[in-house]
Amino acid sequence: MSTIDKYYLKASPQFPVSGTEEITENFQLIASTVSEEGVISGTVTSGTVPIAGATVKVFDSSDNPVAHTITNPEGKYTISSIVRGSYKVTAAKDGYFTPLVIPVTVSANRPTTVDISLAVDPDAALNTLYGIIRAAGTLTPLENVNVNTYSVVGTTQTLVSTTHTNRSGQYVSPYLANGEYIIVANLNGYNQTTSGTTTLSDTEIASLDMTLVANATSNTATVSGIITDNSTLLPIGSAIVALYGITGATETLLKLTKSNSAGRYLFGSVASANYVVKAFAQKAE
């Protein structure tokens, strides 16, 4: 008759005994799940070729990760101590597509075989450009910069990729064939910037950071609105609208305009600063 753990082995803390002490060590044992556990094993291949070093991962039925392992030189793997139930299994390795999960039911004290096939990613051998685009001077990362990657062959430049920077100023231009490339970066309020030529080959991942110089003419805002009658909410035409600059507690009148017949006004080319808008209307007596 065989036996199996009902509770897991647990050890007490180390303690000294020097004489006639009365030592008490109570235990709270954790129930073992060994009697409810099974094993998932199998082979990861691409076609008929075993794939060594692939990561095999097990998820529960709710897609929570449970366990993972790495295949051996023969592409084989074993994941033990999986409590019986329903699971999903998949595998991944650089240079291959990650396949859809394989549903599997694990039985207690029994092996479950799950063989996995990986398809080669034809783009895995291509190159990548990445980097950060910042504002010149302050080196603040710039978000939403339009980043165009051009292939350069002789005097011919061909657009091959368009992307945008994230809030950290980062961009990635992936899947580029061997050759020479330039990056052209654009953002409203900044001068367009073109990088130098970068040569890519042999699955290279190359960093290319850039800075953009603010354009004093285009790097401005607008201030606009509609002037209406407080009681009727009808638009007020020819209202006088003033734009004041604020420096500390001082207000300085910078621009005047009039609302149109629809009550609308617009100030253009407003530089970075603090402002307040004031409006009133007059009539002829």
Automatic annotation (TrEMBL):
Domain of life: Bacteria
SUPFAM superfamilies, per database record: Cna protein B-type domain, Starch-binding domain-like
GO MF terms held by the record: carbohydrate binding; carboxypeptidase activity
Keyword Protease: yes
Entry annotated with the keyword Hydrolase: yes
Pfam families, A to Z: CarboxypepD_reg
Keywords: Carboxypeptidase, Hydrolase, Protease, Secreted, Signal
InterPro entries documented for this protein: Carb-bd-like_fold (IPR013784)
Entry similarity comment: Belongs to the serine-aspartate repeat-containing protein (SDr) family.
Protein's recorded name: Carboxypeptidase regulatory-like domain-containing protein
Protein source organism: Papillibacter cinnamivorans DSM 12816
